[in-house]
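tool=predict chain=A
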Amino acid sequence: MVNQAEESICGEFGKRIWTKFRRGVRDYRLINEGDKIAVCISGGKDSILMALCIRRLQRNKEIPFEAEYIVMNPGYSEENAEKIKENCRKLDLPVTFYETKIFESAEKSPKNPCFLCSRLRRGWLYKKAQEMGCNKIALGHHFDDVIETILMGMLYGSQMQTMMPKLHAENYDGMELIRPLYLVREKDIVEWTERNGLSFIGCACAMSEKNENGSKRGEIKELLEQLRRTNPAVDMNIFRSAENVNLQTLISYHIGEERHHFLDDYDEGITIRGKKNPPCE
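tool=predict ok
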């Protein structure tokens, strides 16, 4: 059965959600023939939309692949857990629920419980997906998460980095993480949610509720809102900046442990790929 919310992904929101979802899958080669994907549903708007898009792609049979739809409960309240189940029933998502005590473990960390929670959840998902015979896990990060990560790295982490569309798992052989909503804007996800009369849970852990107002990501969201008032293209400019990196104009960079500095070969008058140093501005 195809419900109204799923139909609207290809209908009213076709250009803003479905087209961008498919472009991300195609351009970054996120889903391939023969894949078995663990579609990880947290209960929020992003992951549930992602699950509907992946199920739609399965129905189209353009790419023959399998998918398992899973909900890992890290310790939600009964109310939040029931809300997730209600939404999955309403949207006819064939999910399997798993209980864990990740919130309980993370809250014991005195320094950074959110970081520990993220690592525990990711590790659990990789392990469970591998047990199920999957070779990929799919997470619901979207375009805004990507540009916020770029800014957070620069302003708070003193580094230039981004959230990648896919990654090889470090500790789980043959496993990959993919982000199918990589090109989908959050405002379009919010509008899709509201237009279909849906409501979802947030992070729903005690620690996030305490730190919500003072979070670094919250500050970045506010900064972006200010920038958009004078430069509507700022979001795409930030995104493109991670694609248009010119190594000849960087003071230093590294690939893994291999580090490079512009002075390494400066006196030879040659930089990367045998090209001359750029002229002084």
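The radius of gyration is 21 Å. Residues 106 and 112 are 8 Å apart (CA to CA).
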